[in-house]
């Protein structure tokens, strides 16, 4: 008896496509001994085993985060969907300094929303990578805009320059309110992202911008500054820069404590190792490196050694990876893969909760190939999804949620200190050039 679907039945129906031996066996014309039939339950069991193996093979990429089976286009689609739900937060952009350099902060006719790629002098500048159309393509959800103060202003007009740079950032945001929103805390950041606007935060770059005054620090906070980079490429009276020896003075520690009290993030990019170590030991809130890399990959004094990476993990902070080729490869050129190497190193040493993005666009003249401007962030994140060790949740943390967590923690410390009625700091850095004490008239 021939059962429908049995091997003889298949041979009869398939005719000439069936193997000769199978056809001969089915017709009984072979002189060979007939092969004993396997019991049907064994055939069914074997089929079930094969089916289970096939299902497991198809499900494995899902378990690993969906990356192994996807094409580059599919990974990019995944990232774009993710960034609609969860903000990409970049730690450092120097657009405001270019506005000062090119326009002297005269922006009444400056249309950032129209794009700068075809507009002189932006179009021929190697330092220009940012405008609103490209920010939109890059799905940037939140940007820390740098109010940069050059070292040449130290002990001169540094405070004034910082105020002017904060002013131009706020004016740019107001002029482009359909796309940008000035925010000062984590809740406002997430609200702006849900509204479809790019949350804009201010970071003051260079501790010399304080003029050695805690009162100025407090004024910066009231004006919207939410981090202070404690040094730039120069020392100041209370902190040493990268490549120099020495750490924080007592006044420097007072600056860190006052930032904790205010709810301002301590930024250690550009800081010397001893300065960074002192700040990490002093701060009761998480700190960041807003635009740095891993020293183990590129041994620059601007990058973070493994010892400090472990301290960052213990502190709860974040190292935000810079895209400047000289900090990525210690050379003139870099690629997306080179940036990924820094990200993966920080992840291995500090953990996935302690790595973020701080490209430094508009303050660098050698971005990596494939990361030429602010439009390219999704391509970097899609590259990470190639690696089965990176789940979608991991990428969300790197893209921005780690920084949101830091903001929330800094705000929580601020609120705790307020409840404890901690008074504003009154420490002094000591005598400064030009200090005067006036008596009664």
TrEMBL record:
It is an enzyme of class 3 (hydrolase). GO terms for molecular function: metal ion binding; metallodipeptidase activity. GO terms for cellular component: side of membrane. It catalyses: an L-aminoacyl-L-amino acid + H2O = 2 an L-alpha-amino acid. Homodimer; disulfide-linked. One of its GO terms (biological process) is proteolysis. It is a lipid-anchor; GPI-anchor. The keyword Phosphoprotein does not apply. It comes from the Eukaryota. Residues 18-37 are annotated as: Disordered. Its cofactor is Zn(2+). This is Dipeptidase. The keyword Hydrolase applies. Its EC number is 3.4.13.19. Signal peptide: none annotated. It is found in: Membrane.
């Amino acid at each position: 008896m021939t059962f429908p679907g049995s091997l003889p039945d298949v041979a009869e129906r398939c005719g000439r496509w069936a193997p000769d031996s199978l056809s001969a066996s089915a017709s009984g014309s072979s002189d060979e001994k007939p092969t004993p039939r396997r019991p049907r339950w064994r055939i069914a069991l074997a089929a079930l085993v094969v089916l289970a193996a096939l299902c497991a093979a198809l499900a494995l990429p899902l378990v690993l985060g969906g990356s192994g089976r996807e094409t580059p286009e599919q990974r990019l689609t995944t990232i774009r969907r993710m960034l609609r739900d969860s903000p990409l937060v970049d730690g450092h952009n120097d657009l405001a300094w270019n506005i000062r350099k090119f326009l002297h902060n005269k922006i009444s006719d400056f249309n950032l929303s129209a794009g700068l790629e075809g507009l002189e002098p932006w179009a021929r500048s190697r330092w220009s990578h940012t405008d609103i159309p490209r920010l939109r393509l890059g799905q940037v959800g939140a940007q820390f805009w740098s109010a940069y103060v050059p070292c040449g202003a130290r002990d001169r007009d540094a405070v004034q320059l910082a105020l002017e740079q904060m002013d131009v950032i706020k004016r740019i945001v107001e002029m482009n309110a359909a796309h940008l929103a000035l925010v000062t805390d984590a809740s406002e950041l997430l609200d702006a992202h849900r509204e479809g606007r790019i949350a804009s935060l201010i970071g003051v770059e260079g501790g010399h911008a304080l003029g050695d005054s805690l009162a100025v620090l407090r004024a910066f906070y009231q004006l919207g500054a939410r981090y202070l980079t404690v040094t730039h490429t120069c020392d100041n009276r209370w902190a040493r820069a990268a490549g120099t020896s020495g750490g924080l003075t007592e006044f420097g520690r007072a600056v860190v404590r006052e930032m904790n009290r205010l709810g301002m993030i301590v930024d250690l990019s550009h800081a010397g190792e001893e300065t960074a170590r002192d700040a990490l030991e002093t701060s009761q809130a998480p700190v960041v490196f807003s635009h740095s890399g891993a020293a183990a990959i590129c041994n620059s004094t601007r990058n973070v050694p493994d010892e400090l990476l472990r301290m960052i993990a213990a502190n709860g902070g974040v190292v935000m990876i810079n895209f400047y080729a000289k900090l990525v490869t210690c050379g003139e050129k870099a690629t997306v893969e080179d940036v990924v190497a820094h990200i993966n190193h920080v992840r291995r040493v500090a953990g996935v909760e302690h790595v973020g993005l701080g490209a430094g666009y508009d303050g660098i003249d050698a971005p990596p190939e494939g990361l030429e401007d602010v439009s390219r962030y999704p391509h970097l994140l899609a590259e990470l999804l190639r690696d089965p060790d990176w789940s979608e949740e991991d990428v969300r943390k790197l893209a921005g949620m780690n920084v949101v967590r830091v903001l929330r923690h800094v705000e929580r410390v601020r609120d705790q200190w307020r409840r404890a009625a901690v008074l504003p700091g009154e420490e002094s850095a000591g005598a400064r050039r030009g200090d005067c004490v006036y008596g009664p008239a």
